[in-house]
Request: fold
Amino acid sequence: MKIGRNDKCPCGSNKKYKHCCANKKIVQEDSNLLSLSDQQFLGYSRERLPSESPFDLATDGLCCLVMTLDNLKASTLNEMHNTDTFISGMVIVTSGECSDVQMAGPFDSLDEAFEYARIEHGVIRFQSQPEFI
Reply:
């Protein structure tokens, strides 16, 4: 299923896709594949299946996203929440559907956020860029 330009953005911003992530390469048109920056990690509640390509970032079993905020993400969150508490370098964990995104953090390190995701969301593996075997 493809994301329409007028659909809500799957990142959880409640904006239309065309006004949010359509040009940011956060989500590709193929909903089975995601594209992540080097400071974003998908948390999965299952191991990668032998039939799955190690170059794809599957959505099945996906339960959270751990990310380090850069200036753009921090600014976007500050605008969305009408605050100035988000700064570049903060680590957060997000989970939930587009209309009900939950955020936890900030955490002092990625390791601390990974541990939180394991305990609170049952994550058993993290994946960022494609895994090479």
Observations:
- The radius of gyration is 15 Å.
- The beta strands are 40-44, 62-68, 91-95, 102-107, 125-127.
- Residues 110-121 form the longest helix (12 residues).
- Helices lie at 71-80, 110-121.
